[in-house]
Amino acid sequence: MMIVTISEKGGQQSQYDFSTAAITIGRMKGNDIVLPKGNVSKKHSRISVLDGQLFISDMNSTNGTYVNGRKVAGEQPLSETDKIYIGDFILQVQAKVAGQAGPPMPPQQNANISDADFSGPGMAPGGPRPPAPPVAPMAPSLDGPSGFAGSVDDLFGGDTDGPGHRPSRNTIRESAVMRDSGGYGAATGEFDEESKTPAPAVAPGPGPAPRRRPSGPSPVPPAPPLSESGGFGAAPSRRDSGGFGAAPPVEHEAISSPGRSMDAVLAGRPAPPNAPIAGPRAGLPAGRLGGDSGERAAHRPTIPPQSIQSEFDEDFHAAQHDVARVLLESVSLDEMVLEYPPESDVFDSFKKEVSAAVDVVAPSVDREALVDLMTHECVGLGVLDQYLDDPEVQDIYIQRADRILVRKNGTLSVAERAFSHPSFLMLAAFRLLGTREPVTFTDEIRFGDGTRAHVVMPPIAVDGPAITVRKPPVAHLSLDDLLERNVFSPGIRDFLEHLVRAGRSVLIAGPAGAGKTTLLGAMAAHIAPGTRVITIEESAHLQLPQDSVVRLEANPAVGYGLKTLVRTAVAMDPQRILLDECVGEEAYEWVSSAASGTEGSMVTAHGISAASALERIESLCLLDNPASNPRGLREQIARGIDFVVVLNRSDDMGFRVRQISELQGVDLDAFRLNDVFYHRVDGNEEQFHPTGYIPLFYEDLRDAGVDVDFDIFRD
Fold this sequence. Notes:
By secondary structure, the chain is α+β, with helices and mostly antiparallel strands.
């Protein structure tokens, strides 16, 4: 005597009203509830009620029965709020008191089960979102509007709260052509296209016929550009410019098989009496629940809150401001050359002028550091030079002249130093671009060591030039290094190594900055020596130990983008192709290659879950082949990708393996995925869990004599 509510990931919810005290659940006929999925055993679980108390027991199933994420061992009590995980299904049971009416007839959605609940074994990890990260306090505003025209008093003595003037349209020409910068601002893998997976049918077996019912802060004004006088510098390059060390030059860059469908499983089987097939909810297409897509809600990542510490030295910045005021009384901004890096005699000349201005101000801060920084503002990139040469700094984000964020040793903080005035920030931006009159308002500059600087100019950047600098990784981490950093569990580490050695093709997905390239390099290091591997990157960062590796780097300026390089790699007789950061038409070329000869290839892409990453790959493939049949394209992707590894950023400024899923094929119009591992955070504790599902290739490895540990699939 119980009411059972059944939900399948992305499918319809149904309710059964039983008048017996015990029911069985399984895949085959003869059970009271039949769940026709391959990850459900023939006789899987038993639920009973005694004196109003519910009990559940597992019937020696292969993948186990889970209650609230914990595996059922023996018979255990069950409450009405507990969620039972059996394969791809979630069940909730309510005991009926004698005389209690069954559930209401109109379709409704069970309020106790949401799409985000599909986070247990066999499901995608999920859970409640944490609160939004706190907003960091704004740094003090600079004095006065920015500008180059007028007297020094006009430049520095303006009203601190007054509005600044916009850049002159005559100085920075407007351009309708905005060059795509590639590595920044790429899509995150979210799509508005709704899932069209038909609702699964859950057929009851013989026995008492159940009654089935559907259920359903005020910004600092931007600095105007420098005057049009002054020379045009060559493409900037970093080298020793007197004080911050040498730097490299800058270059400007213009086993899968389709599974048996549920219709085939249930073909020819009529519905039992009093058990009509549930229809879709009113106003919704079949197979959809109300609200957001079930898959997307289940896989929505939780971005950890990050508090930003401030190291900003207000006294030093005030001294910078005073020295700049005195300096510009004797040196015009037009006299500050655009060439970068400057010649040594130019550096020495401006250093004398800066020293004289510092002597006039006589600040109570480090004189040598102040002179050096102000000299670099006059002839170089200012404080940016200092952080570019700091090996502990990984990323630099210039938000405005007096607010710079740096990521140092994985921790984001407000930088200690900043620009003395927006005019010097504008000058630094022009030196990076190599011109005072950029033809576009966004551009990307690459240094010789792989460092990339992305520049956004006013009027698009409201608070002055916004510069994002990302350095290439200095250390190339191994799987053991990532294990020490708690990126995954020891079991997952072994699984990833065997995954690579077994020649399975892998899609590594995650948001920007989630460590996709780092994990790609760590996994690729386990490719067998002598394997012909070709790596394709926008900027060559991967350093693999094999002597047989060929490294290719994109150069769109001369017509060699990622798509062209993938085609070139296919002609080079590769055994594996590693594509880092798939963002465009190259997706179709890679999938075609991985599905037809380069097994064991790997690719990284943006995505917040296994399903959304595959959807993104599908959409990118359509860019190159829009006339392809959708079903055929999905089947080709399923042949080319065996596993999906999903990463996410963590609250300790690192990243975690959030989900590992096997792509088994295509069911109707959706990818068929089976989760192998998932990561769950409960309060302040985080754990990696296996789902109990064992991929078939592990058995193949065992049969081939490889020493594999099956205990990693047990929780």
